[in-house]
Design brief:
The complex is a heterodimer of chains A (413) and B (209). Chain A has 413 residues and is mainly α. Chain A has 15 helices and 2 strands. Chain A is 62% helix and 1% strand. The longest helix of chain A has 33 residues. The two termini of chain A are 28 Å apart. Chain B has 2 domains: 40 residues; 157 residues, 3-layer Sandwich (Rieske Iron-sulfur Protein). Classes of the chains: A mainly alpha (413), B alpha+beta (209).
């Protein structure tokens, strides 16, 4: 990696003998060469890190006013919203942050699908990323339970009951997760503990591993060719530029645009028409009354649509689990020589395009009530969803081997 | 004495003894780690007070009119009690072919309610009111012929979450995401109008009632 040029004074020398600050900066930023042809799709990695930090900071402050427990949780959130100075802002920053996290992560994943970023040698980078995604789903789900609104309660009831379908141990496992015969105080308190301590630690660890793995293999790029294959006389990639200052500055532009959109949502549409915070969650949890239409928050609905459309409990849960886990296997399902969609044939483009459409369609269907029309549409989408993963090995093998450019496509600006 | 001389006295390494000691140390550590996990994992099980709150509950049925349903709580779960009319009971026989488990073979109920109307006293239906699919509360759709539920609807329950449909004995219809009938809790009667939820009836009681 990068060599350290120490032109600092006595203190800097003293410091670096004891803590390798300059070496770290050189390895991670100034000496880390990234491809020069990044486009807008490459904003979302650094934005995901930004949202993670925002969630930690707003989470710390929201926790100062939140009181876990059946009797206190809902009122403490209302107290935060109505009585604490700027409490409404803290809460909306945190709740909007959860949805923003998924927007950014889904776009980050879309980038990987478009440009084959998950292919060798980046398989583990992708797998670690998927683990982050799963941990994020658990973190978001438990966070949604904490305000103890009616959708919190029934959402928890439905999601925990999915484990009921595991043969043999299901019912005992569900009772163990809840700590009671129904979703109750015990459930809420353990979710609070996991949400504020265990999962953030796990996420931080996984994010660190994700970055270490990225530094090891280097970033891919829209052309999907390896810049490390074309080195200049100085041993640096010809098509690479140092991450700092080039991409740190570029990312600041992304951050500015993102925060503008984020602020607009926080101030003008914090519930986002019931998508980010659902209406039934503004009334307290009521074990006597299931909300008229139970739908999880939007980022879970593609999988949820699959779960409820299959007219068999165990098969439904199995398809639900498979639909989430299938992404993990992409590096081995995709057998094309080329990574990027730019250098793949029409069949690959159609297949990937169909998958994006089906995913968004299922996302929308999962938000609709469980009426026959919507269930029927979901049943049409489910085979198409899995067809993507099953056809990918053959389609990618057949039309992903055309010529690729020698150097990255780049126009100076 | 020089260091060199001391080195010469060191005996040959006994490889098998070393392997055994490594395995024994690692094994003991692993067993210790697993045993240490027990209290942490056990702390998630229902607490003593949660268990105590699961004792049988007595409820009064005298205020439930024919054709109506009341909801009680037992073990923090809603218990549906329906006083079925003769028409409701008659409707049960009409749609066996449309049910996933008409005879309740795969479903969860006390032995004394594993019969055609899934009850001790035919006019009193007692069910755990959480959908066997994913635990939502099915809503009452008692009006026969309610086309918004399905064609030829005989009356029963409809789960708003995922669209499972159950008849007036809690039996699940084909095409529902739920695979088994609504569960029946253990229960018995004290006199005509007191229902004891959570306490088993003697199997012979069905005949007497």
């Amino acid at each position: 990696m990068g060599e350290v040029v120490n032109n600092g004074g006595a203190f800097r020398t003293w410091l670096n003998k004891r803590l390798p600050v300059d070496q770290f900066v050189a390895d991670q930023l100034t000496g880390y060469y990234a491809p020069k042809n990044f486009n807008v799709w490459y904003f979302f990695g650094s934005l995901a890190l930004l949202v993670f930090v925002m969630q930690i900071v707003t989470g710390i402050f929201v926790t100062m006013h939140y009181k876990p427990g059946e009797a206190t949780a809902f009122n403490s959130v209302e107290y935060l919203m109505r009585e604490v100075p700027y409490g409404w802002l803290l809460r909306y920053l945190h709740s909007t942050g959860a949805s923003a996290f998924f927007v950014v992560v889904y776009l980050h994943m879309t980038r990987a699908l478009l440009y084959g970023s998950y292919k060798a040698p980046r398989e583990l980078l992708w797998v670690i990323g998927m683990l982050i995604y799963f941990a994020l789903m658990a973190e978001a789900f438990m966070g949604y339970v904490l305000p103890w609104g009616n959708m919190s309660f029934w959402g928890a009831q439905v999601i925990i009951n999915i484990f009921n379908t595991i043969p043999g141990i299901g019912p005992d496992l569900v009772e163990w997760i809840r700590g009671d015969y129904a979703v109750a105080d015990s459930t809420l308190n353990r979710f609070f503990s996991l949400h504020v301590i265990a999962m953030p630690f796990l996420l931080a660890l996984l994010i660190m591993l994700h970055l270490v793995a990225l530094r090891q293999v280097g970033s891919s790029n829209p052309d999907g060719i390896e810049i490390k294959d074309k080195l200049g006389p100085d041993g640096k990639p010809l098509d690479g530029i140092p991450f700092h200052p080039y991409y740190t500055l570029k990312d600041i532009v992304g951050v500015g645009l993102f925060l503008t959109l984020f602020a607009i949502v926080v101030f003008f549409a914090p519930t986002f028409g019931g998508l980010f915070l659902e209406k039934p969650n503004f009334e307290p949890a009521n074990p006597m009354s299931t909300p008229e239409d139970i739908a999880p928050t939007w980022y879970f609905t593609p999988y949820y649509a699959i779960l409820r459309a299959i007219p068999d409990q165990r098969l439904g849960a199995l398809a639900f689990a498979l639909s989430v886990l299938a992404f993990v296997f992409l590096p081995w399902l995709d057998r094309a020589k080329n990574k990027s969609i730019r250098y793949r044939g029409l069949a690959s483009k159609v297949l990937l395009g169909m998958f994006f459409v089906v995913f968004l369609m299922l996302m929308w269907l999962g938000l609709q009530p469980a009426e026959p029309t919507y269930v029927l549409l979901a049943r049409i989408c489910i085979p198409l969803y899995f067809a993507f993963f099953l056809l990918l090995p053959f389609v990618s093998k057949a039309d992903g081997n055309g010529p690729v450019p020698d150097r990255v496509t780049y126009h100076a600006h | 004495m020089s260091d060199h001389a001391a080195d010469d006295t060191v005996p040959e390494v006994d490889e098998s003894r070393r392997k055994f000691l490594i395995a024994a140390t690692a094994g003991t550590g692993a067993v210790g780690a697993v045993l240490t996990a027990v209290p942490f994992l056990s702390s998630w099980s229902p607490s003593e007070s949660a268990r105590a709150a699961g004792l049988p509950t007595e409820v009064d049925l005298s205020k439930i009119e024919a054709g109506q349903m009341a909801t009680f709580f037992w073990r923090k779960q809603p218990i549906y009690v329906v006083r079925r009319t003769p028409e409701m009971l008659a409707s049960l026989a009409s749609h066996d072919a449309e049910l996933k488990d008409a005879k309740s073979e795969a479903s969860d109920q006390p032995a004394y309610t594993k019969n055609a109307d899934r009850s001790l006293k035919p006019e009193v239906l007692v069910l755990i009111g959480t959908c066997t699919h994913l635990g939502c509360l099915p809503k009452t759709r008692f009006t026969p012929g309610d086309a918004s539920v399905m064609a030829n609807w005989p009356g029963g329950f409809f789960c708003p979450c995922h669209g499972s449909k159950f008849d007036l004995a809690g039996r699940v219809f084909n095409g529902s995401p739920a695979s088994v009938n609504l569960r029946v809790p253990p229960y018995s009667f004290k006199g005509d109008n007191t229902l004891v939820i959570g306490q088993d009836a003697a199997s012979a009681e069905k005949g007497a009632a």
